[in-house]
Amino acid sequence: MVIYGVALLAGCYMAGNVIGDILGALLGVKANIGGVGFAMLFLIIISAWAQQKGIMKAPEEQGIKWWSAMYIPVVVAMSSIQNVAAALSGGVVAILGGLLAVAIGFLMIPVLSGKKQKETVAEDSLAHSK
After folding, report:
1. Fewer CB within 10 A of the end CB, N or C, for the chain?
2. Residue 74: exposure state from Cβ atoms within 10 A (0-12, 13-18, ≥19)
3. What is the SS3 assignment for the chain?
4. Contact call for residues 24 and 31 (beta carbons, < 8 A)
């Protein structure tokens, strides 16, 4: 049922690309900035809204879930076409931006996983005390 929900995905993708192009033009960059990210954000918001309203049926929901699972491969494929050599020769800003993103990602791992870990530890201690 992958074909169901493709129209929603296509609409979100086109809207995301338009916003990414506009954002790039506003910032003076000749590139699409975050088009795929905006598209996936729209897809998540619209599909959640449609599920709450009861508009989205099971086949459409399965198709959207499949396309949502394809998010990471799509981002990796689109990132592979970026000009890394130009970014590295462009200056320190590109390198610092990448390093900062990786550092923040590493720092967020304990924050995001800490709450769940504490809950399971609390549940285990309650189970052993009974």
Report:
1. C
2. middle
3. CCCCCHHHHHHHHHHHHHHHHHHHHHCCCCCCCCHHHHHHHHHHHHHHHHHHHCCCCHHHHHHHHHHHHCHHHHHHHHHCCCCHHHHHHCCHHHHHHHHHHHHHHHHHHHHHHHHHHHHHHHHHHHHHHC
4. yes
Cα separation, 115 vs 38, whole angstroms: 28
pTM: 0.55
Through-space distance between the first and last CA atoms of the chain, rounded to whole angstroms: 47
CB 88 within 8 A of CB 94: yes
Q: Residue 4: CB partners within 8 Å, gap ≥ 6?
A: 59, 60, 62, 63, 64
- Report the pLDDT value the prediction gives residue 15, as an integer from 0 to 100: 93
| Alpha carbon distance 29, 71 (integer Å) | 24
Check: CB of residue 43 under 8 Å from CB of residue 15.
Answer: no
- pLDDT at position 83 is 64
| pLDDT for the residue 44 | 82
Amino acid (one-letter) located at 13: Y
